[in-house]
Amino acid sequence: MATPTASSAPLIEKHTIGYVPPEDRHGKVRDLFTLWFGGNIAPLPIVTGALGVQLFHLNLLWGIVAILVGHLVGGVLMALHSAQGPQMGIPQMIQSRAQFGSLGALLVVLIAGVMYIGFFASNIVLAGKSLHGVVDSVPVPVGIVIGAVGSGIIGIIGYRFIHVLNRIGTWVLGIGIVVGFGYIFTHIQTDDFLTRGSFNLSGWLATVSLAALWQIAFAPYVSDYSRYLPADVKVSSTFWTTYLGSALGSSLAFIFGAVAVLATPVGMDTMDAVKLATGSIGPLMLVLFLLSVISHNALNLYGAVLSLITLVQTFAYRWIPTAKSRAVISIIVLLACCFAAVGASKDFIGHFVDMVLVLLVVLVPWTAINLIDFYAIHKGQYDIQSIFQVDGGIYGRYNPQALLAYAIGIAVQIPFMNTPLYVGPVSAHINGADLSWLVGLLVTSPLYFWLANRDTSYRRRMMGGKLAGSL
């Protein structure tokens, strides 16, 4: 059967967490570049990138270097997850059952769902502030609701519409941010633009970590947006289009935030600094960012809903929900986030960043296990039917080797952590730099590979996986 083109695919997505059969595959691999480039030109990465000079007191040069290093390193992991999508044809979180077992994967799925909801709530707050900045008569709470509804509509329509909007957004936002850079550099309002801040190792490492963790935060759902591509798409093509789109788009947004803050007086809110630094084109920039945050936030809603469906389906294993079920759950999540965001404190974004740093401590070992299992152990060959069985099929309810490596991967990060809940002794010794994610990756990856290869049931799973890979 011929693979349908994107134009012949239904606009409203009918699949949720189920396997996408060959006849429903569509799209081009280049769509991944526009999705991740356009999706990262948004207020939240701009606000996050500004922290390198605001919070960690780097100057412009070292701030840019740290941002680039972090995104280029973290983007490798994110893109390796993306390359799994065409081969598997299922969302990333439900695929984790093949590594952790049907019940063993629940913790990671829950954590990912909470993170998506946090991203969604934070972005609608930024949407509300952006709309209020464009039209003063629109209160921030009203802007929050408008932003949430816009993202909700896009998320409910689903996969194809998300890709279409980001193809458009790549050109519009790409041109917009280049124009914005040009205006700022020709209208600098401070005398210390190049000299404010300085190099400090702890601040540089912290900024690198923040950029790398930004990329790793996409890992639990990046392959959700490549799973409709034809199965014969080259792994290298999927990797590079995702990597270049995400690393370039997010780096530009991070650097834009740092530049805007340095070009304006000390102490300004980042988005206020963007408005002031871009002068006469400021309102236009805010409109573009508003549209961007609404479009990009649909990904967070989409990921949150797929995670919730995966949690429920673990126990109601015969249920593979339809588009209608996805829409209902999307509306419930949207309403809950609106209620939380409208009543949130002024420092909501700061609290959110703190939350993400805590959650990523437990997501980093998952990333290591998933990638080692996919590329080094099973080599992309899995039994899809077993993944949807209540007992985990050939993967079981629990995989002790994965859970042990996961627990150790979390434990070894503790001395290197720097979160609002806890600062480890090593982090304190290096002036607060958080290197926990790097330690977690370096320990968990070889440990899981060694444990999996010592597992006597490993070879049985391998044999089962080689007979599968599709339904």
TrEMBL record:
Signal peptide: none
CDD domains: SLC-NCS1sbd_CobB-like (cd11484)
Main location: membrane
TM annotation in the entry: 33-53, 60-80, 100-126, 138-162, 168-186, 198-222, 242-264, 327-344, 356-377, 403-423, 435-453
Subcellular location: Membrane
Keyword line: Membrane, Transmembrane, Transmembrane helix, Transport
Pfam families: Transp_cyt_pur (PF02133)
GO molecular function: transmembrane transporter activity
Membrane topology term: Multi-pass membrane protein
A Gene Ontology term for the protein's cellular component: plasma membrane
Family, as annotated: Belongs to the purine-cytosine permease (2.A.39) family.
Protein name: Cytosine permease
Origin species: Pseudomonas fluorescens
